[in-house]
Amino acid sequence: MGGDAVDIWQHLASRKIMLLKSMKQAVQELEDPHAVFSYAQEIGFNSGLLTQEILNKMIAAHSSANGNQVTVEQKIEIPAAKIAPTDVIANNSADELGRTIAPIAQHEPFDVRFRNNLPDWSVNDFSENASDAPQDIKVHYDITGKSVTEGKMSDINSCFSDRLEKIRKMIIRNSNLPKPPQEIARLQTEYARYQGYGNSAVAIGLVNEPRYTKNGHLMWGIEDETGEITCLLTKRQGDDRDRAQELILESGLMPDDVLGVSGSFSQTGDIFYVSDLYFPLKPKHQKASSEHGISVAFISDIHVGSKTFLEAQWHKMVRWFHTDPLAKTIKYLILSGDCVDGVGIYPGQDKELAIPDLYGQYTEFARLLELLPDWVECVMLPGNHDAVRPAEPQPTFEKDIQQDYNSTTFVGNPCDFSLNGVRLLSYHGKSIDDFVAGLRTVTYADPVEAMRQMLRRRHLAPQWGGKTPLSPEPEDGLVINEVPDIFVTGHVHGHACIDFKGTTLICSSTWQDQTSYQRMLGFQPKPCILTIVNLKSHATTAIPFA
Fold this sequence. Notes:
Elements: H1 5-14, E1 17-19, H2 21-28, H3 33-37, E2 48-50, H4 52-66, E3 114-115, E4 118-119, E5 137-141, H5 153-174, H6 184-189, E6 201-212, E7 218-223, E8 228-233, H7 243-251, E9 258-265, E10 272-278, E11 295-299, H8 311-323, E12 330-336, H9 358-370, E13 377-381, H10 399-402, E14 408-410, E15 415-419, E16 422-426, H11 432-438, H12 448-457, E17 486-489, E18 496-500, E19 503-507, H13 516-521, E20 529-534, E21 540-544
Parallel strand pairs: 1-2, 8-10, 11-12, 12-13, 13-14, 16-17, 17-19
Antiparallel strand pairs: 3-4, 5-15, 6-7, 6-9, 7-8, 9-10, 11-20, 15-16, 18-19, 20-21
């Protein structure tokens, strides 16, 4: 080999070229490796993973230019789908690549007795191979092709009227109201009838300007089609405390929530003293189960195109899909938005992109999905980094993006759909930012609390004019019309899987390493965790690949 091994490895590292172990001998057998690699740019290979096919192209280019014959033995021909991340040789240029490749254990994932401190899976809970069950995807709601708003004030009014009407019916049906609700205008006219103990009134409306008083009481306006009253929930002491009210005082309310209140008026009628609040979620949901013991897996926020995309861990997951018995039960893979990093999403993003072309990012992600086994059907929806309108609900991807994908079902964000009889609600989760800002009990460290609050309100993004851009459709597409069996979000790069009142809540894990912005905030993501739920037993497990 022309030059010692250390010299050529340093040369490859400086060119941001990662080498397979299986390719090491082939490179060492080159008579003049520096000369061969000088033709990398000519064949369009600037950086990335060196394969036998790419090396052969560089050898052919060098041979053609110099009029001689340069050969290399075809030691191992490795199809792209079989490249394993354990074949990647680590080098000193990890920082230059914009990410750190996590160490990969030598044993296979199915040899691990415990995954993420959860008991290993049981064949009884994951009882059927995906290839033995029919594909059954039924979409109940998706805004794609149905958006008709023109953004006029009449559209905004229609959207809020639709929200109020739908959630009002849910509150009346699911909450134990002490008496039928009345129009706010009528209550204001007859406020003297509803004063003092035992003379309570009930109203349902939209929340306006929730705020705390200096004494820790919670005050807000509640509005319906006829009028508005000012509500006050007081902070009580001693035996007079109510746990449900304490929770509301602790968390607060979101602007534009729809809720019910009961209570009485002050002597002057300008304040409505709230004794109880009523949300639209029923106490317990009964899950539906599929007759097939197949499974669905969840990931989100892959951010292909970013320098911090964890490609080695993706290939580790692909290898697991092809070898692990549990993987053979996975019929569906739900991709909950931000599958690519996008272009022009935030200032200075171009410096953090490994693939600066938007369509190139989607093409690369399509290639990565093709590595998965053919028994897996992907369901892909957009997020705030994707090439769709930012306003929610978001329609799905354009046809020129979809054309690179084979076994993928494209839906909008959010999407209410069923898989073999089990109802899922998939939402990217941009409004979690609003819940973190608006409710004192919601943090990025515990994003499932935002999901609980969404279900309590039966609405994914109640606040108008917050961090989440909303499209004022005549029919509010963010109302949760039916309680799902499984509710999944992404966006915050965390991970969780819990049960809440009969619904499985999943915060999907990211496939992106810590970004510079997250590092500045001190936020540590939880990457590369595949969450799996069986559609028959509803057993869950999580497989870590980082």
